[in-house]
Amino acid sequence: MTSTRIGLPDISMTQMEYLVAVQESSTWANAAQALGVSQSALSQGLAELQRRLGIELFTWDGRRRSPTSAAIEVTEHFRRILALTSDLSRWADRVRAGSAGKLRVGMIDAAAVDHFGDALKAFRENSPELDLHITVGPSGQLLEELAKGDLDVSVCVGADRTGFTQVPLLEEDLCVYAPPDTKACASENWGPWVTFPRGSVTRDLIENALRSAGAPFNVVAESNQPEVLSELVHIGMGWTVLPRIQAERPPASLSPINKSPLLKRMLSATTRETGLANPAALDLIAELQQEAANLTLKQRKSSP
Predict the structure, then answer these.
(1) Distance between CA 108 and CA 115 in Å, rounded?
(2) DSSP 8-state class, residue 209
(3) Residues 144, 97: contact at Cβ < 8 Å?
(4) Cβ–Cβ < 8 Å for 239, 191
(5) Which of 40, 115, 237, 262 is least buried, going by the fewest C-beta atoms within 10 A?
(6) Chain mean position to CA 135
(7) Which 3 state secondary structure label does DSSP give 160?
């Protein structure tokens, strides 16, 4: 099946501007001056426009050129095109400045819900013309989507992987939580565990930390959702390791087996090393850095 191309004349934006200018000016000399061109260039440009359209645009009335009715119709059409083009130019400027266009952001649940929800809301309100799309998922999934180009920036657990640039944002404490009424015991007696699925960056960190503490890592249940892991601990299915902000939030309100955290994880804003940086992504990262600094300061003030 062949496509039929509509035969449109090859008209330049300059020629459109020439026609609109002569219609809006009292004389061709004034039009040329307003455009910053010579009268000769203006005349030649309009003669070429008339040739390409195949329509008579001007007639001579003595020594004065007068527009035809066709010229008036064409001029109105050109005005609309020039206005839309001006809108497009301004929109492109805003895209380059980061205030419009599309921004695809990936976040782990703790970043989106617990830490940076207010910052995201404010960023969206301050950039009403920006098409902001949020994907919430585990770090491994977000990094894969970032690598494929499906995301512009990912706020996830920092991972030492090539091809990414990371901006540290916020450090989280992860503690060990046991079912209710569990008595304190040596680390070799901890478990069994309910934790994140294989492939999770946080799971790898947890496993390494537990093994370093001398605890076995026998996994009996897996979920990407911290709320599910907390409930599994409540019903006695097993132990877990979670960020304090998620495990100790009502209605779960788990209590850590030890006061000190088992490990810390760093949440980072991650982008691809290659490719053009999205200006909106850079603006968002700056906002997240400021929010993270505020949260860190608040945590320090509330610490005993």
Answers:
(1) 10
(2) H
(3) no
(4) yes
(5) 40
(6) 10
(7) coil
Residue 26: which region, alpha, beta or left (left: phi > 0; alpha: psi -120 to 50)? alpha
Any residues with CB less than 8 A from the CB of 150 and at least 6 apart, and which?
104
Helix (H) or strand (E) holding 173: strand 164-177
- The 10s digit of each residue's pLDDT in 233-290 is 999 999 999 999 999 988 768 999 998 999 999 999 999 887 667 788 999 999 999 9
pLDDT average, residue stretch 71-86:
87
Collect all residues with Cβ–Cβ distance below 8 Å to 276 and sequence separation of at least 6. Answer: none
Cα angle value 119/124/130 (rounded, 5°) = 140
Per the structure block, which two tokens stand in for 138?
A: 């585990």
Tell me how far apart the alpha carbons of residues 73 and 154 are, in angstroms, rounded to a whole number.
51
Residues 6 or more apart from 93 whose CB is under 8 A from it?
A: none
CA distance 55 to 104: 48
- 154, 142 Cβ separation under 8 angstroms: yes
Strand partners, 59: 66
CA distance 246 to 52: 68
- What the block records as the tokens of 299 is 């945590």
What is the rounded average pLDDT of the residues 158-186? 90
